Amino acid sequence: MPSEAEAARAQSWQAAHAQADDGRFEPRVLSALRAAGWVPGRALEPGLLEDWEDDMAALSRLVPAVSAHPLARAAVSEFGGLHLEVAGTPPVLVYPADEHLDPEAALTASREVDEALAPIALVADGWPTTVVTTSTGRTLAVRGGRVHPLGPDVVSGLTSLLLGPTPDTGVPA
């Protein structure tokens, strides 16, 4: 059960992002989102969101830190099913993707963070890279048994994945 603070953050996210483009995205990220079918106020079909929640519940039996927490649910609802591409970077596949979620990546991330987390995307670059978000919104890439910070929130994480690392993310190029 999410805390009141988590639920409030998720409600705030959903309310803020149901409006027209609010300046959250860099122009190239916004272009990639629109090319993939994103529009302001977009929401994943409820059945697909429930499938993701079921997958999180199954994964949580293997990795107790996994949770379909409110911020992850909001991110998957808004971006779920999108295949995001910007020239020069590997595609980002937001759940549901054709690939399966990697329990080992979730376990690796759970050892690094002391909060609930949820896999929300995969990077399709030939190396298994899973993108997770934590219950406070931090977005992380799990690759090769290591956890790399992408950003303090999902939008920053997507931006880092699509445009490359920024000095403050610490993500290797």
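Second entry:
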Amino acid sequence: MEAILETDEVIKRRKKSFKSTISETDEEIKKRKKGMGSRNHSRVQFQIIAQMILKYNLAYHIIPELSLDINGKEKIPDLSFYKQFDSVTHGDEIRVKNLPLGVVEILSPTQALSELVRKADDYLSAGIRSYWLVAPEVQTVYLYEMDKKLKVFTGNDKLIDVQLNIELELSTIF
């Protein structure tokens, strides 16, 4: 009987330990929720994925909300573009070190445009070739490429990303 009580106590300690390792701090919760999906944000994210699949089939793997390790800091773009992105059979990777070719950030109503503009340098300096900053409210895509030149597409423009060889009609996104 004594051995059973010890086992119950061990189980309680393990549960408590497990809970403390998976619980988030208030700051982590705020960070995760920051800029999260409004109706338009989610719709635009869906439309970009759908258009990429329709137009480019499986030439690109479009991965939403992937945690990237960029110079030791976590960045979670709305979308990441890879040529190949296989799942791992054993374990998982919490912060992916293999950086994508391109990333997309979609401005949400709770974010400042300047916050996402600052991310352009982080992404491009790390070697990501293309960064799309999408502003649904003004139906505009700001495209930053490796040479750090800015291209702006709006209205009925065709987004042309020469780094990734992608062309999308904005009317299919907004």
